Amino acid sequence: MLPNLRLTPSAILALAAAAWLFYPVASRLSHDWLNDDNYSHGILIVPLALFFAWERRDRLARLTPRPSAIGLLVVLGSLVMLVAGTLGAELFLTRVSILGTLVGAILFTGGWAYLSVLAFPLAFLLLMIPIPAIVFNQLAFPLQLFASQFGTAVMELSRVPVLREGNVIILAHTTLEVAEACSGIRSLISLLTLGIVYGYFTDPRPWMRTLIAASTIPIAIIANGLRVAGTGVLAHYYGREAADGFFHTFSGWLVFVVAFVMLFVITRALLRLSPTPAAPDAATGAAA
User: Fold this and answer.
1) Is there a domain that residue 98 lies in?
2) Are residues 144 and 264 in the same domain?
3) One digit per residue, pLDDT tens: the chain, 288 residues?
4) Inter-residue contact 78 to 38 (CB < 8 Å)
5) How many other C-beta atoms lie within 10 A of the C-beta of residue 76?
6) Which residue, of 113, 130, 147, is where some domain finishes?
7) How many domains does the chain divide into?
8) Which is nearest to 222 in space by CA: 179, 174, 171, 259?
9) Which of 130, 148, 177 is the C-terminal boundary of a domain?
10) For residue 161, which of 34, 133, 180, 269 sits 20 to 30 Å off, Cα-Cα?
């Protein structure tokens, strides 16, 4: 609840209506978090967003509510989006309508100042929504090809005879296919979320946070390419069973750990090149 805003009976009724209206959408969304490995991180997004909003409670408490009628238009537009998504069986629209309704409600009851303070927590909630399947597939296939190319190049440097045809890697004794699950998009989405959170707690400067988050994209792609290369090397020397067994499952976690170490190293390097300016109070205290 926003500071300085009274929870009137009409507000309680509106919240109850919204909960009833969006319950089927939220229920399906939470089901995807629990069952889709690509978005298992989604279950952490809402608590983190609430924490980011709670951190802003002092700034919100100093504001005076200045309701904007534009918020009502945003809510109505979001409800139209919900209806269109429901009729068209388009999950992405129905899920985005939840955020649209929340944004409109804040704007209608608190005004632009409240919305500005809460912009980051609201934008962060976008990470809980799975991207549309058509976009997912457009991203996955190029990543599959890149992982195949990168893995093949690393195997060649390791003196492993290999031939690549698209996303199929042909070894002397077996053939490996870089499937959609091995494209790296799963680790890319999860690592991007981690990078945003890590940057938020590491440095207060928006441009540095953006740079830290953006660095997760090449890190995730390279780390997944190394995973493909490692799988190929194991398959060459120890047979396909070694690559498909425990290592295949464990390598997914190992790649994420390696990627996080790379993110940590890059972040330290960025902060060394551009240190965080000392807070005014800290500087004054140091001088004293």
Assistant:
1) yes
2) yes
3) 444 555 566 666 777 777 888 888 888 888 888 887 777 888 899 999 999 999 999 999 898 889 889 999 999 999 999 999 888 878 889 999 999 999 999 998 889 999 999 999 999 999 999 888 788 778 888 888 888 888 888 888 888 888 888 778 888 777 777 766 666 777 788 889 999 999 999 989 999 999 999 999 899 888 888 888 888 887 777 766 666 655 556 666 777 788 889 999 999 999 998 887 765 553 333 333
4) no
5) 13
6) 130
7) 2
8) 259
9) 130
10) 180
pTM (predicted TM-score): 0.80
Asked if residues 148 and 226 have their Cβ atoms less than 8 Å apart, the reply is no
In a domain, 231, yes or no: yes
Q: For 279, which DSSP code?
A: P
Distance of CA 123 to the CA centre of its chain: 11
The parent domain of residue 223 ranges over 134-273
What is the rounded end-to-end Cα distance, in angstroms, of the chain? Answer: 41
Structure tokens at 108: 């209608």
Pair 157, 72 in one domain = no
Determine whether 14 is exposed, middle or buried from the number of CB atoms within 10 Å of its CB (0-12, 13-18, 19+).
middle
Same domain, 52 and 169: no
In sequence order, which ranges of 6-111 are alpha helices (DSSP H)? 9-35, 42-55, 57-61, 70-87, 91-109
